[in-house]
């Protein structure tokens, strides 16, 4: 994780939290070299896995205080971890090995809008679009791990009015009131509504972020695997029903379903058996929802109301029309109550 961006040149300081790295003598801010970790990253990427470098965390030190700092940070990260730095003058922790993108885990300063993160994202994405990486790589990612209350305050300037590009959001549905076990507090539908109507990327994917153990979430939010898969099933189903319902009004996005899967914090709490169970469970759920989508169960028998007739409250929407179908009323107006059955 990049845990610190010093204010001078915004050199990203990598905090590996293990013994695989060594401080580079004379480097600014005690930058590190991590050849063993670089080999691990290379192996995973060769196996088809996407590797992201995370920026942020619970401790302060990576805040952006001006447009200049935002552009400087993007330049540093591009050259230190991604496709840049090919001139040889950059201290790269993983050497010639590059990662596939950056994930913004912005938690500080708490409760304060990050006004300059949209500039950071714009600058970094401009590198993605205009500067080829090693071996011609161009499919770099920009993701974020926001807190589940919508909108996450710190990243909100980047979310509003189709302002900034995100490929994926790994939404943290834990350590907050909007966990899947909190009835109508669970608000994946609100994030899905943003994805369909306000995301700059019309195909952004949303992951239901959970924790693999009660010890992994200090403020609560752990959901047993069977219940997590049940929540994922009903969430994917809701998103698919919304897709079918709105496809006539949004023809440009008629195949789009924002649900991307489950993300787990963190790998150290999981096992291969756990991750395989998540993967197989999601695959089974997708098959069931696809079958239902192809049947008459998800067919829309009425014209959708205009987006401007909708209002949102607490992660739910109430549509000001008497033309709502039964499922539409459930989707926009219900609380979450279908979590008690196993998969």
UniProtKB/TrEMBL annotation:
Keywords: Carbohydrate metabolism, Chitin degradation, Glycosidase, Hydrolase, Polysaccharide degradation. Residues 296-343 are annotated as: Disordered. GO terms for biological process: chitin catabolic process; polysaccharide catabolic process. Its EC number is 3.2.1.14. It catalyses: Random endo-hydrolysis of N-acetyl-beta-D-glucosaminide (1->4)-beta-linkages in chitin and chitodextrins. It holds the Pfam family Glyco_hydro_18. It is an enzyme of class 3 (hydrolase). Residues 331-343 have a biased composition (Basic residues). SUPFAM superfamilies: (Trans)glycosidases. It comes from the Eukaryota. Residues 1-285 form the GH18 domain. One of its GO terms (molecular function) is endochitinase activity. The keyword Hydrolase applies. One of its GO terms (cellular component) is extracellular region. Belongs to the glycosyl hydrolase 18 family. This is chitinase. It comes from Orbilia ellipsospora. The gene is CHT1.
């Amino acid at each position: 994780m990049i845990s610190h961006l010093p204010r001078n040149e915004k050199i990203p300081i990598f905090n590996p939290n293990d013994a695989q790295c060594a401080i580079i003598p004379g480097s600014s801010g005690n930058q590190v070299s991590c050849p063993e970790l670089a080999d691990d990253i290379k192996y995973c990427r060769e196996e088809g896995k996407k590797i992201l470098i995370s920026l942020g965390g619970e401790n302060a030190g990576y805040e952006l205080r001006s447009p200049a700092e935002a552009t400087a940070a993007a330049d540093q990260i591009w050259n230190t971890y991604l496709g840049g730095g090919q001139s040889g003058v950059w201290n790269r922790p993983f050497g010639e090995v590059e990662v596939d993108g950056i994930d913004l885990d912005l938690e500080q300063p708490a409760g304060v809008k990050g006004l300059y993160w949209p500039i950071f994202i714009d600058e970094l994405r401009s590198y993605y679009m205009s500067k080829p990486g090693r071996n011609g790589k161009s499919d770099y990612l920009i993701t974020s791990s926001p807190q589940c209350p919508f909108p996450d305050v710190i990243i909100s300037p980047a979310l509003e009015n189709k302002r900034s590009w995100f490929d994926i959001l790994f939404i943290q549905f834990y350590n907050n009131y909007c966990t899947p076990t909190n009835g109508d507090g669970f608000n994946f539908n609100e994030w899905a509504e943003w994805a369909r109507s306000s995301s700059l990327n019309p195909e952004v994917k949303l992951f239901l972020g959970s924790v693999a153990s009660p010890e992994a979430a200090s403020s609560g939010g752990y959901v047993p695997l069977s219940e997590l898969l049940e929540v994922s099933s009903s969430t994917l189903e809701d998103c698919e029903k919304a897709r079918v319902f709105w496809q006539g009004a949004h023809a440009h996005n008629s195949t789009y379903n924002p649900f991307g899967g489950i993300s787990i914090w963190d790998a150290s709490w999981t096992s291969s058996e756990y991750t395989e169970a998540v993967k197989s469970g999601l695959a089974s759920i997708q098959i069931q929802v696809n079958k239902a989508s192809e049947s008459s169960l998800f067919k829309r028998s009425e014209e959708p109301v205009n987006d401007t007739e909708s209002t949102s409250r607490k992660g739910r929407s109430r549509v000001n029309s008497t033309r709502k179908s039964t499922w539409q009323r459930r989707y926009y107006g219900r609380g979450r109550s279908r979590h008690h059955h196993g998969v």
